[in-house]
Amino acid sequence: MHQNIIDLMTILLRQVKIADPRSPHNGLVRDILIKDNKIDSIAEKFTGKADQIVEFSNAIVSPGFVDPFVQFCDPGMEHRETLTTGAAAAQNGGFTTVFALPNTQPVVDNKSQVTYIKQHSQDLPIHVLPIGALSKKLEGKDLAEMIDMHSNGAVAFSDGLYPVQSTLLFLKALQYVKAFDGVVIQMPIDKSLGSLGLMNEGILSTKLGLPGIPAIAEELIISRDIELLKYTNSKLHITGVSTAKGMALITAAKKEGLKLTCSVTPYHLFFTEDDLKDYDTLLKVFPPLRTKHDQKALLAAVESGVVDCISSHHMPQDWDGKTIEFENAKAGIAAIETSFATIHHLLPKLTEQRIAELFSTNARHIFGLNAATIDAGAIAELTIFSKKEITKLSKSASKSKSANSPFWDLSMTGKILATLTKGKININH
User: Prior bond to 75 cis, omega within 30?
Assistant: First the structure.
């Protein structure tokens, strides 16, 4: 998948279909002229000159994709991923903005670490926004310096891969972020029920002789956090929902009008626990792959609109972390490059508008980002994709530093054609 980056004054996107619920041009096929990082004009047919004309067949353009939960391992674990390689992989997957987890070494729990991410991301082709730690050193004991981090550019707050277990601390965090209208992100797992688990608890885990993580470990935390949300009237985003009942709890809470949003991963929609029969370490993830019943419920929630965002939960691991016995293998999938193709392949009937909501506009609204509306005068932050072309990502074509993906060499319908951000267009070949 060779890439070609073009840095010119004016770029013309010829005859692209606009998928943006907020745009007056939504659903129309138009020529879009970009000049100096802004959309200069949108017309049925542009007759003037442009430095670069970009033309695809059956191309759809949406506001730039956003991934609200990625692990870029930088600083401290750069052998797995760096901000540079992570950004390249994200761009390859169609993302123009990602939220980097605070689970680094050192932890992003103060303004100097937030500044590190911001400064090291300035020259990257996409926007990498730091998620600030909710607790100091991710220990789940004392609140981190959230106002300081927010003031310096933290986009949201979470302990990331270490879900907050203390009810008191989580309550305090929800109350605290109200001071600046912030959002807390939680991955729902009750560690006391799943600390030793390696996969979904059930008949299959017993057959395979692997300790399980029960569905109730997720559902108890979701239930608790919803009650705390009601109490505080704050903003909560639950990510990596993996069970049918967990999604049902979220659906009911949303109907009550709470400021609750959620995201699911592509791999919880694509794989189930049945795929673990051969102890494939590439499919060891956290939260674990669940049952076909759970998978069906998650897919239905994506279609119905209950799910607000798709998040790759991109989790690079080095060779040693995966080429090992299942019980000792590290959890996670490097999933950011195949995120869109996976979703479109599984749910080909999703409308262009729903794709734009799931991958871009909802996350922009939830986390208070630039809306990137496709209209004259707006910042040009765009993702161009096809619903007809095929994605077949090989290990050699991947931009990530790690290769822990079960999606290599799978043919999936749906492809990222290009991204446009920071005044540059990046075309995938």
Answer: yes
Q: Six-digit token pair at 297?
A: 């419920």
* DSSP H/E element including 34: strand 29-35
- The torsion angle over the Cα atoms of residues 361, 363, 364 and 366, rounded to 10 degrees, is 120
Quote the tokens at residue 368. Answer: 């208070």
Q: Contact, 253 vs 229, CB < 8 A?
A: yes
N-terminal to C-terminal alpha carbon distance within the chain:
5
Between CA 65 and CA 93 the distance in angstroms is 9
Does residue 273 lie within any of the structural domains? yes
Question: Where would I find the H helices in 317-370?
Answer: 319-322, 339-346, 352-356, 362-366
In a domain, 186, yes or no: yes
pLDDT along the chain (429 residues), means of 10: 58 96 95 94 92 93 97 92 95 97 95 95 96 96 96 97 96 97 97 89 95 96 98 98 98 97 98 95 96 98 97 94 93 94 96 96 96 94 96 87 91 96 88
Using CA atoms, how far apart are residues 63 and 121, in angstroms rounded to an integer?
A: 20
| Residue 169 CB coordination number (10 Å) | 18
Helix, strand counts (H, E) of the chain: 14, 19
Domain check: are 226 and 309 in the same one? yes
Q: Are residues 348 and 380 in the same domain?
A: no
| Residues 164 and 178 occupy one common structural domain | yes
Q: CA-CA distance, 204 to 125, in Å (whole number)?
A: 44
In a domain, 208, yes or no: yes
**Do residues 271 and 420 both lie within one domain?**
no
CA distance 402 to 422: 26
Number of alpha carbons in the 13 Å side-chain half-sphere of residue 214: 8
Domains identified in the chain, total number: 2
What's the pLDDT score for residue 74? Answer: 87
Q: Does 402 map to a domain?
A: no
- The whole-angstrom separation of Cα 250 and Cα 365 is 19
What is the domain extent for residue 379? Answer: 3-61+375-387+413-428
Using only the alpha carbons of the chain, give its radius of gyration: 21
On whether both 106 and 25 belong to a single domain, the answer is no
pTM > 0.70: yes or no: yes
Q: Reply yes or no: is the peptide bond before residue 288 cis, omega within 30 of 0.
A: no
Clarify whether residues 208 and 69 are in a common domain.
yes
Indicate the burial class of 55 (C-beta count within 10 angstroms; 0-12, 13-18, 19 or more): exposed
Output the pLDDT for position 291: 97
Can you give the CATH number for the domain in which 252 is found?
Answer: 3.20.20.140
Whether residue 64 contacts residue 356, with contact meaning beta carbons closer than 8 Å, is answered with: no
